[in-house]
């Protein structure tokens, strides 16, 4: 049954300061929304609990992509279409532009935002594996000021993030210091398009004389949150790419992931496919 629209309150302040003040003052806690793509699914299914909503759509203070010499700063309200069409992101941060191309239909990419994909905190979300592989940082703001958090520490548990009730995700920062890194990203779903991932892996690595000098691996649908595969990375760091190393990395991945059985897949399938994707990436090195 569709939700009753009269049970909801929506406000749309014209400035970031006004939004932050409402979040600070409201004892009932407004829920920020941007593109609303996730919200509309819940509304149509009758699963959206009555609440107060505050719109961030068309707020230019949150919709930007700024390129600095050493980093790219992406506003939380930048859409997936913005990411796909930006020349620096497509050329230097291609894992993110590829992930953006997976996110629903073209209409959804025109509305859906990077910040919304992060804060919605789905363990199957498309952008987090790329952000984890790039070791992104996120900046959050409130009337009390701002703070920057390594993205790998942002997701605390299922659907729970490091955001305080009065805080808003402001931007995402990715380093441009990626010279010499090879990249990899794969999503496995029921269909080739418009599918929620059964498993997704994004990774970057740098080698010298056959030895892995640096590696980062992000994953979706393998834990209760998007996850950096730290133990798997450690098993590979400073190691040559050999069958024995690959076998050890597969074991490390299986030991640090906790996939589940659900309507889309089984835990056994997810674990096997994730290990296969990791091996596929390592063979490219």
Automatic annotation (TrEMBL):
Domain FAD-binding PCMH-type: 1-179
Keywords, in A-Z order: FAD, Flavoprotein, Oxidoreductase
Pfam families documented for this protein: CO_deh_flav_C (PF03450), FAD_binding_5 (PF00941)
Gene Ontology molecular functions: FAD binding; oxidoreductase activity
SMART domains: CO_deh_flav_C
Protein name: CO/xanthine dehydrogenase FAD-binding subunit
Species of origin: Tunturiibacter lichenicola
Taxon lineage: Bacteria, Pseudomonadati, Acidobacteriota, Terriglobia, Terriglobales
């Amino acid at each position: 049954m569709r939700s009753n629209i009269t049970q909801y309150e929506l406000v749309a302040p014209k400035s970031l300061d006004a939004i932050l003040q409402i979040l600070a003052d409201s004892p009932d806690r407004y829920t920020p929304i941007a593109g609303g793509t996730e919200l509309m699914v819940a509304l149509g299914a009758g699963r959206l609990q009555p609440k107060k909503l505050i719109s961030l759509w068309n707020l230019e203070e949150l919709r930007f992509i700024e390129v600095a010499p050493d980093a790219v700063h992406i506003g939380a309200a930048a859409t997936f279409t913005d990411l796909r069409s930006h020349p620096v992101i497509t050329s230097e941060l291609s894992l993110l532009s590829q992930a953006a191309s997976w996110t629903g239909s073209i209409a959804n990419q025109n509305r859906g935002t990077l910040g919304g994909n992060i804060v919605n905190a789905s363990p199957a979300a498309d952008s987090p594996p790329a952000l984890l592989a790039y070791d992104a940082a996120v900046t959050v703001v409130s009337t009390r000021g701002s703070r920057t958090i390594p993205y790998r520490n942002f997701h605390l548990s299922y659907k729970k993030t490091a955001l305080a009730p009065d805080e808003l995700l402001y931007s995402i920062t990715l380093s441009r210091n990626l010279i010499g890194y090879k990249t990899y990203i794969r999503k496995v779903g029921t269909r080739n398009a418009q599918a929620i991932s059964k498993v997704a892996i994004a990774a970057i690595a740098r080698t010298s004389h056959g030895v892995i000098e640096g590696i980062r691996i992000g994953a979706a649908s393998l834990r209760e949150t998007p996850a950096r595969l730290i133990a798997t990375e450690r098993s590979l760091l400073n190691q040559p790419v050999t069958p024995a190393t690959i076998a050890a990395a597969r074991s490390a991945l299986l030991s640090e992931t906790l996939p589940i059985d659900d309507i889309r897949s089984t835990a056994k399938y997810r674990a096997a496919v994730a290990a296969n994707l990791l091996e596929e990436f390592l063979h490219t090195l």
